[in-house]
Amino acid sequence: MNPKNVLILPGWQGSGPDHWQSRWEHAHGYTRVEQHDWMRPLRGDWIARLEDVLLSCNEPAVLVAHSLGCIHVAAWASHSRNIHLVKAALLVAPPDVERDDVRGLLPSWQPVPMGRLPFEARMFASSNDPYCNPERARQFAAAWGAGIIDAGPCGHLNAESRLGDWPRAHDELLRLMRDTSASPSQA
Questions:
Q1: Report field, pTM of the whole predicted structure over 0.70
Q2: For domain 3-181, which architecture applies?
């Protein structure tokens, strides 16, 4: 698989230089899906941008989403007619955007789409994520049909979690890519 077709989907406010997503982008040549506005994200704008990037790929892509990027994947999949353009997704630390303390900050991101993703997905969730409790993360994983991996007590699995290059998650991404390369993408 062409590394350019591994799409990095940061969450709200983007991923800074010490974030594992940024480190993977630089180390492996993955492509960051840039958004027009990282600070005031609009669901429809983010979905349209992902659709544009996917249409430019020369083969089905693998999505690597963190935080709001996970909700972004579910929202895109629930609306797109081009779901065949994605073969798999690695989802990390989805936030519960329906919580009262988040709802007003990200008003266009409710409700969380709870339909099964039409491609293979795996999710890392932390046992002490301040933006999503473990039970809610398990609900997302079950609804989306994603296998869930307990990352332990690592906060929001971001730069503050001091994961560095996070080899455990990158190994899981490579495994996911191997597993899905043997089977045709779903249409």
A1: yes
A2: 3-Layer(aba) Sandwich (3.40)
